[in-house]
């Protein structure tokens, strides 16, 4: 999930900083009757229909829809949510059964039964949006409803990661009466079965969530209502936080604003910081005559200075990344550093001249203006500077807002383009599988049979994910050699809030999606 910022998980914690002298950001509190908690983010949904989205829209889905499995606070593996229980019923990881909770209903009162689950999964594959979540269901052969409460998933190959897939918001359960089987829903109305229902929605501006009284699931709601406000840039969002117009920010804060919030003179505010698993990377389109050349891609990989990007653009609020699998996950390597080392113009020139390329290579780099934070333009300007200063490249920069940007890369219009990735689930599989194969999350087919037909299938036969390091290390060696995907940096996670808000330290699940129900107002000091 991309498009797509913990005392969050014990293994991921780096620091929890209170910017209010004498006040603990971790103190418990109830929900005071002071109106909805207002949360700011720069990541607006691209669509309200789960069948169409493999991006940051999931943030909203998690709070208004349910999935069979999800992540209760503190969990790092999927647990039953709309389901009462789920398990593989064979030793080959090909048959997965879920039993629903009894008496489940959608927010509008319609029954949530096994038929609704089957409908929700089937329509994802039937509609099959380009770059959409159908790519997550490659191992699914069929799904059937057995009575009102049992759902059976038959897989076409062993896949121990399938429970993780079912826990993604892409697999949100929708009402067959409201969501057509073969087309997307067009209006801005949503009736899920999650902790909240969507009272109103203004595209790109605001989503008003109120408590769903029919909800059954593991979430213990600490508030009755949340309003999410969508901002175009970090500066406007953080100013709204300082001015008391919003209570919390959780994605899209610029480095300058984070540094400012860390200062002790930021009275009345708190900042929680943790290690993240979101990554930023470049995609090379093989349809472009220059980006299709391995020598060109390797020359770019040899020139790019990740440390300079992390330091000069992001002020060390991100870390350089040399692998598509981020640090902290089993299978992480430093393959790009091992192969290319530090930036070196002479080595890059040799890649080109060995293939007979002696002219400056013209490349167009595309980025989105309103998805990954305010530094994105600066990041691409820095990439342009680095590559042109080498004397080997001429770089043209172009950009679009996210909604039209998505259409462009799905149509294969961009020679080189930037993407961010917020994980669907916390496993190395999710940083490799979505980007390879004929139908992937990038809209640029990447046929790599050794990965798709051997290494990933081998890894998915193993439920103990510590035992699949060998497969993921080999897969990453292939990615490094191809240089079709170029990792740049790994993010840190930041939640900033007014000092009367509790829950920021526990509100992000392992996929860094905010569980709005964990937020509350402190009733007393």
What is the 3D form?
globular
CATH architecture of the largest domain: Roll
Count all strands and give the number.
20
Average predicted confidence as pLDDT: 89
- Number of H/I helices: 13
Query: What is the count of structural domains?
Result: 3
InterPro entries: Peptide/Ni-bd (IPR030678), SBP_5 (IPR039424), SBP_5_dom (IPR000914)
Protein name: ABC transporter substrate-binding protein
Signal peptide: 1-32
Subcellular location: Cell envelope
Structural description of this entry:
The protein has 525 residues and is α+β, with helices and mostly antiparallel strands. It has three domains: 157 residues, D-Maltodextrin-Binding Protein, domain 2 (3-Layer(aba) Sandwich), CATH 3.40.190.10; 109 residues, Dipeptide-binding Protein, domain 1 (Alpha-Beta Complex), CATH 3.90.76; 217 residues, Dipeptide-binding Protein, domain 3, CATH 3.10.105. The protein has 13 helices and 20 strands. Strands 1, 2, 9, 10, 11, 12, 13, 14, 15, 16, 17 and 18 form a twelve-stranded mixed sheet that branches. Strand 3 and strand 4 form a beta hairpin. Helix 12 runs antiparallel to helix 13. It is globular and about 70 Å long. The N terminus is likely disordered.
Write the layout of secondary structure elements.
Layout: E1 13-18, E2 37-41, H1 58-64, E3 69-70, E4 79-80, E5 83-88, E6 95-100, H2 114-127, E7 140-146, E8 150-155, H3 162-166, E9 196-202, E10 206-211, E11 225-230, H4 234-242, E12 248-251, H5 255-262, E13 269-284, H6 294-303, H7 306-313, E14 318-320, H8 335-340, H9 345-353, E15 361-368, H10 376-389, E16 393-400, H11 402-410, E17 416-421, H12 449-459, H13 469-482, E18 485-498, E19 501-502, E20 520-521
Parallel strand pairs: 2-11, 2-12, 15-16, 15-17
Antiparallel strand pairs: 1-13, 3-4, 5-6, 6-8, 7-8, 9-10, 10-11, 12-18, 13-17, 13-18, 14-18, 19-20
Helix pairs in contact: 6-9, 12-13
